[in-house]
Design a protein that fits this description.
371 residues; mainly alpha; 6 strands
Length: 371
């Protein structure tokens, strides 16, 4: 783990050396890119990694002010790579200075320790992305005019905040792939994490390349809120197993988010884009409004939502079985109350072998011994 001091340093470039010092090594690469800004020969290459590319300046209709808008291109790969390095460094900082300190206090098992680290990292990312997404949507007119999802397609140009949002999103989810190695994720957890990492990369990159960034932003923001609530609830559950109310609220919002995603997707692909006047396929214009692309996108979204609902139902059933077994084991531990025997019941209200005063009988008196 990066930034962690060890008593015994492993051999250079060994497996343990890379795992323990990966953040330091990545920091050196990022510093080399930043130092390239100091020299005129390398500055143009460093700028390609650091700043958002493909800037276009447009003036308003009354020519009173100019607007800086952006489109995408192959140079974005370099920008995504640089912010991937930044994501790895931030991941190591959060792990070292926040999550590891909390783990030492909680004394969790290995399984819970791995899930706690996963939820801690994702909760921080979802909180940041949800807040950023809300700030971008607040400047748009989606609340008053949902038709902006498909009006004017293809949406070739983006505001700076929108493009930088997508760059950071792709960088984060691409960085999650090497983190499976750096964090020594257990083999049984790797397939599960690979599934949702690849789904995020596929959908976010698809929305970016197909000029569907408006729809992608609208669908990602509520989804991140639901995921934030789930991982925050899991963090509270690991600290105290009695805190499970957050899972109930998460379950309700999860179903609502799935319905919202399906509704907006059907409206966009089945109603809005299908009736648009600008239909056709053109890579130069960034227009992908043809039936094949629309049906492929809609099918991918529907299949993903169905898979998520299937996982959700299985999770709820597993949780219900665990609670049922827990209640059953508690009842068996208490055991049934023993009924008094016939011999005990015939003795009436005796206490310690002596009859109570209200029973009108008394123990048999002993005869005095004769000397």
């Amino acid at each position: 783990m990066g930034f962690r001091k060890k008593n015994k340093s492993p051999p250079v470039l060994s497996h343990e050396f890379v795992v323990q010092n990966h953040a330091d090594m990545v920091s050196c690469v990022a510093m080399v890119v930043l130092l390239g800004l100091m020299f005129e020969v390398t500055a143009k290459f460093s700028i390609m990694f650091i700043t958002v590319q493909y800037n276009v300046t447009q003036t308003t209709e009354d020519k009173s002010e100019s607007l800086n808008i952006y489109h995408y291109g192959p140079k974005d790969i370099a920008t995504v790579f640089f912010y991937l390095l930044i994501a790895i460094i931030l991941h190591a900082l959060i792990q070292e200075y926040i999550l590891d300190k909390i783990n030492r206090r909680l004394h969790l098992s290995k399984t819970k320790h791995s899930k706690f680290n996963e939820s801690g990292q994702l909760a921080a990312f979802y909180l940041f992305s949800f807040t950023w997404g809300c700030s971008i949507l607040s400047a748009e007119e989606f609340v008053t005019n949902p038709m902006f999802l498909w009006e004017g397609y293809p949406h070739n140009h983006m505001a700076f905040q929108v493009k930088f949002f997508y760059i950071c999103q792709m960088a984060y989810w691409f960085h999650a792939l090497p983190e499976l190695y750096f964090q020594k994720v257990r083999k049984e957890d790797i397939p599960r994490q690979l599934y949702y990492i690849c789904l995020y990369i596929f959908h976010i990159t698809g929305a970016y390349v197909l000029n569907l960034h408006r729809l992608g932003l609208v669908l990602l923001t509520p989804h991140y809120l639901v995921e934030l609530l789930f991982h925050a609830s899991r963090l509270f559950y690991f600290s105290n197993e009695n805190k499970q109310k957050g899972f109930t609220l998460w379950a309700l919002l999860f179903v609502f988010a799935r319905l919202l995603t399906l509704t907006l997707s059907v409206l966009t692909f089945g109603f809005g884009l299908s009736r648009s006047d600008n239909q056709g396929f053109s890579l130069a214009d960034g227009n992908f409004n043809v039936l094949t692309v629309r049906m492929t996108c809609l099918s991918a979204i529907c299949l993903t939502q169905a898979w998520m609902m299937w996982k959700f139902i299985n999770f709820q059933l597993k949780k219900w079985r665990e609670q049922t077994l827990l209640h059953t084991s508690k009842r068996k531990a208490v055991g049934p109350r023993t009924r008094p025997t016939k011999k005990d019941s015939s003795r009436g209200g005796s206490v310690n072998g002596v009859m109570k005063p209200e029973d009108k009988t008394s123990p048999r008196a002993r005869k005095p011994k004769t000397s």
